[in-house]
């Protein structure tokens, strides 16, 4: 929630920009760390959600690890001081160069997504005289009940090893002299709001862990991924219920004394801590449609165009005034999909009004582009 003092501060700042509430970020990180500590769970932050250096430094200082999906993310984590022993490297298409650089960084482990990848990592590790720690990412065929484009755990998805390929994985692991098997990994999707989904995941994790141990492997790590969603409709509710989330795994995941449980949370940690601030360039009132044209567009926040995602939008200049008209809130990009909301009820809006698009901390700044040769929007931080 923005105060009058905030709006005064923004008065002479050129828009668009991302505004980070560092107090809220710290509160969210502390809530997650405390809830995870109750069960001795290990949390790796998913850099793909937001790799802003100020945000990453706050996360690193809380002692979280890093979940990376490119060598760039691995290098960013190392440069900012994340411990190499807490960095995991996932991704369905790791290049040889990326694997070699991650081997040189001595990261905790690779989350491997195909039988072929096991062989490649083994060969590359051998050529460097190293032993690579690996976890097998398994596609559990669990429906996350989220948007189709952010579901990752079904047979139709490209991610992970399907169950029918696991025997070949076992043989590849037995044949590989330069791989150390540490455990199994899962990730079924993003923006999951039903805890029942995670209960179903636990059932599958239990089954696959038992299967690997029956084949003679010691499963030391149960990495259940992330995916916990946030409430985009009520951004002032702010902090996700980490206690209930972790409690599901405590109740339904079968964990042996020698096993660690790892999580890869992204959106839930950073999603609510940022907003995209923008000003109205033009108001176009018509017979069938009224348009508010902002100076921010899909180049600054891609989610509405990419996923038809909802973000709460507020006219800060008219705070407290009743809704008067319906507007399509759009950006300046030369694409019809450059639209943040349709038929949104707002106070009567004028050129120069300051708008806030909330819950932009995850998949906001990281998805920004220079399309239309747009300049990148800067970040501004709370004064706390």
TrEMBL record:
Residues 36-270 form the Orn/DAP/Arg decarboxylase 2 N-terminal domain. The keyword Lyase applies. Belongs to the Orn/Lys/Arg decarboxylase class-II family. LysA subfamily. It comes from the Bacteria. The keyword Amino-acid biosynthesis applies. It is an enzyme of class 4 (lyase). InterPro entries: Ala_racemase/Decarboxylase_C, DAP_deCOOHase_LysA, De-COase2_C, De-COase2_CS, De-COase2_N, De-COase2_pyr-phos_BS, Orn/DAP/Arg_de-COase, PLP-binding_barrel. Gene3D superfamilies: Alanine racemase, Lyase, Ornithine Decarboxylase, Chain A, domain 1. This is Diaminopimelate decarboxylase. The modification N6-(pyridoxal phosphate)lysine is found at residue 48. It comes from Pedobacter yulinensis. Homodimer. Specifically catalyzes the decarboxylation of meso-diaminopimelate (meso-DAP) to L-lysine. Substrate binds at residues 267, 303, 307, 335, 363. It catalyses: meso-2,6-diaminopimelate + H(+) = L-lysine + CO2. Pyridoxal 5'-phosphate binds at residues 227, 264-267, 363. Its EC number is 4.1.1.20. Its cofactor is pyridoxal 5'-phosphate. PROSITE patterns: ODR_DC_2_1, ODR_DC_2_2, PROKAR_LIPOPROTEIN. Pathway: Amino-acid biosynthesis; L-lysine biosynthesis via DAP pathway; L-lysine from DL-2,6-diaminopimelate: step 1/1. SUPFAM superfamilies: Alanine racemase C-terminal domain-like, PLP-binding barrel.
């Amino acid at each position: 929630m923005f105060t009058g003092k905030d709006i005064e501060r923004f008065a002479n700042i050129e828009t668009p920009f991302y505004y980070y509430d560092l107090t809220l970020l710290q509160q969210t990180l502390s809530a997650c760390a405390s809830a995870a500590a109750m069960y001795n769970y290990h949390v790796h932050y998913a850099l793909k959600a937001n790799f802003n250096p100020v945000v990453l430094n706050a996360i690193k200082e809380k002692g979280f690890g890093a979940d990376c999906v490119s060598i760039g993310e691995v290098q960013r984590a190392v440069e900012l001081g994340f411990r190499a022993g807490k960095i995991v490297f996932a991704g369905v298409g790791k290049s040889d160069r990326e694997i070699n650089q991650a081997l040189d960084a001595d990261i905790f482990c690779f989350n491997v997504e195909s039988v072929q990848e096991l062989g490649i990592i083994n060969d590359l590790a051998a050529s460097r005289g190293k032993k690579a720690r690996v976890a097998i990412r398994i596609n559990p065929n669990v429906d996350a009940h989220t948007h189709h484009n952010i579901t990752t755990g079904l047979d139709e998805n490209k991610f992970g090893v399907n169950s029918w390929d696991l025997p070949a994985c076992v043989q590849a692991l037995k044949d590989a002299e330069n791989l150390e098997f540490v455990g199994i990994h899962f990730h079924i999707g993003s923006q999951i709001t039903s805890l029942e989904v995670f209960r179903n995941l636990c059932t599958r994790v239990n089954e696959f862990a038992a299967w690997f141990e029956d084949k003679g492997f010691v499963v030391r790590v149960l990495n259940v991924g992330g995916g916990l969603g946030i409430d985009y409709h009520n951004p002032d509710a702010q902090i996700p219920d980490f206690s209930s989330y972790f409690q599901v795994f405590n109740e339904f995941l079968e964990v042996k004394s020698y096993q660690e449980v790892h999580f890869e949370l992204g959106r839930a940690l950073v999603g609510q801590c940022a907003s995209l601030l923008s000003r109205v360039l033009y108001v176009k009132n018509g017979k069938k449609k009224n348009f508010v044209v902002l100076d921010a567009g899909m180049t600054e926040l891609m989610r509405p165009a990419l996923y038809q995602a909802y973000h709460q939008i507020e006219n800060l200049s008219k705070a407290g005034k009743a809704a008067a008209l319906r507007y399509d809130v759009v950006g300046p990009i030369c694409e019809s999909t450059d639209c943040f909301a349709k038929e949104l009820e707002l106070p009567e809006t004028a050129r120069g009004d300051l708008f806030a698009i909330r819950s932009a901390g995850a998949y906001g700044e990281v998805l920004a582009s220079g399309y239309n040769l747009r300049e990148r929007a800067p970040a501004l931080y709370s004064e706390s």
